[in-house]
From TrEMBL:
Keywords: Iron, Iron-sulfur, Metal-binding, S-adenosyl-L-methionine. This is B12-binding domain-containing radical SAM protein. It comes from Pseudodesulfovibrio sediminis. InterPro entries: Aldolase_TIM, BchE-like, Elp3/MiaA/NifB-like_rSAM, rSAM, rSAM_sf. Residues 217-446 form the Radical SAM core domain. Its cofactor is [4Fe-4S] cluster. Coiled coil: none annotated.
Length: 458
């Protein structure tokens, strides 16, 4: 049962002159369906950007986040560090394509019946429902929520957007009972099509569309997110960033700072950067924002779960980050086989200089983690072991970044050739938990061995 003081999902408006009734748009972030899941400052940034721009265009908006830990009637696991933590989960039957896996498959997030009851209590009903998809292989949760919405409001248009809808369009068109929004909503064709479908005149696109987030829709947030840019100027072979968002756009420092200050004023102290290229052109927005945090004496903690590019970590950069309150440092090393790298993002000298600059700036070793790619098509896993040892020699914590074959990435064809699974036909096989491109696939014995290596045990 929903707690008595939470009978409905609230609608949020923004002052906007109009002679017509404002459309009501409900955004839903579905459950995670997977073998494992952990909350690392998770927020559906794409959906929050959509809701913000729709509200800016005159709509009333509401959010149902099935991963929101502020629902008091749910017993959530003990919170982790800085607002991270585990999700409540319910064991599910393993999907037929993944039946070979010797791992428990679960639904992570709020109980299904609680979500259904909250949606049932929503008054008045929405004029449209937008459902997000963050990972391609999490689509079962999105399809489930779409079925609930179709049952509750059969005449209300449903829109499915995000990674699965954009990168697995053919599969989504076959299985999802919804209109597909492929690519950002602010693209002119998507923006016009959305308003036409719901039967309202198309309003002008608000300023800063796509870079402003409706983070205020969370009532009692333990953390918030910062989005200073969309897209990435790099073209890594394993990444589909360009397929999702081809451009690289940066926001205005004043808008970003206003968002941080607003969240801070209502008690938020942990902020996670969601930028793919945080340290690129920092004069545009990052330095003014960090300087203002220092000038205003904001007692907050900053985190970089998406990893920073080590080559940009000069002494000055490290000290500015430290002074502004950066706590959780994640670095993208990927591999220490510098002589055979297929990109020019990082040299051995740049890696060692950046690592030493972090230490000199006074960062806590416990808060520095380094991502090392694991499970690439044809990857020599001996090189991964060497990278783990190399990172531990600096005193940092190595983390294996398990490779996810992503449609639209330059490496996807190679992944399809290397994997025994039909990656292009069934997104469930793109799940990095099954080690889709590692010969022999996932193994508990190998997983335990790698865990020991990461801890320095041999």
């Amino acid at each position: 049962m929903i707690r008595p003081d939470f009978p409905h999902i609230p609608w949020h408006d923004r002052d906007h002159p109009s002679s017509r009734r404002a459309p009501r748009i409900l955004g839903i972030n579905p459950w995670i369906t997977d073998f494992a899941a952990f909350n690392v400052w998770s927020r559906p940034v794409g959906l929050l950007a959509c809701l913000d721009m729709l509200r800016g265009a005159g709509a009333s908006v509401a959010l149902m986040d099935c991963l929101d830990p502020t629902w008091n009637d749910v017993k959530w696991p003990k919170p982790g560090k800085y607002g991270t933590g585990h999700y409540p989960k319910e064991t599910l039957a393993t999907p037929a394509p993944l039946a070979f896996m010797d791992r428990r498959f679960s639904c992570y997030g709020l109980p299904r019946e609680m979500v259904r009851e909250a949606l049932t209590a929503l008054e008045p009903k929405p004029d449209a429902v937008m459902v997000s998809t963050i990972m391609t292989y999490w689509y079962p949760g999105a399809l489930d929520i779409l079925d609930i919405v179709a049952e509750l409001w059969p005449d209300v248009p449903r829109f499915l957007g995000g990674t699965y809808a954009t990168l697995c369009g053919e599969h989504a068109r076959t299985h999802a009972n919804a209109h597909l929004t492929q690519g950002p909503l602010e693209w002119p064709d998507n923006w016009t099509a959305f308003w036409k479908t719901i039967g309202f005149d198309t309003p002008p696109l608000p300023e800063n569309a796509g870079l402003s987030l409706a983070t205020d829709l969370y009532e009692q947030p333990a953390y918030s997110v910062i989005l200073g840019s969309r897209g990435c100027p790099f073209s890594c072979e394993y990444c589909a960033s360009h397929a999702l968002y081809p451009a690289f756009n940066q926001g205005m420092s004043s808008d970003i700072l206003n968002g941080i200050q607003s969240e801070y004023d209502r008690g938020v102290r942990n902020f996670a950067f969601y930028d793919d290229a945080l340290l690129i052109k920092p004069d545009r927005w990052l330095w003014p924002v960090l300087d203002a945090i220092v000038d205003r004496s904001l007692d907050l903690r900053l985190h970089t779960p998406n990893a920073m590019h080590v080559r940009h970590l000069t002494q000055t950069v490290c000290h500015r980050l430290k002074d502004a309150g950066l706590h959780t440092v994640r670095l993208g090393l990927e591999t220490t086989d510098f002589d055979n790298r297929n990109d020019v993002k990082l040299t051995r000298e740049q890696w060692e200089a950046g690592a030493n600059n972090l230490l000199e700036a006074g960062f806590d070793l416990d808060d520095i983690g380094v991502y090392i790619l694991f499970g690439l098509p044809g990857q020599d896993l001996d090189n991964v072991e060497q990278a783990v040892d190399h990172v531990r020699a600096f005193g940092f914590r190595p983390h294996l970044a398990h490779y996810t074959p992503i449609p639209g990435s330059p490496m996807f064809d190679a992944a399809c050739a290397a994997s025994p699974y039909p990656l292009a036909d069934e997104p469930l096989y793109q799940n990095n938990s099954i080690w889709p491109c590692v010969p022999g696939g996932f193994s508990w014995d190998e997983a335990k061995r790698w865990k020991c290596l990461l801890q320095g045990k041999r």
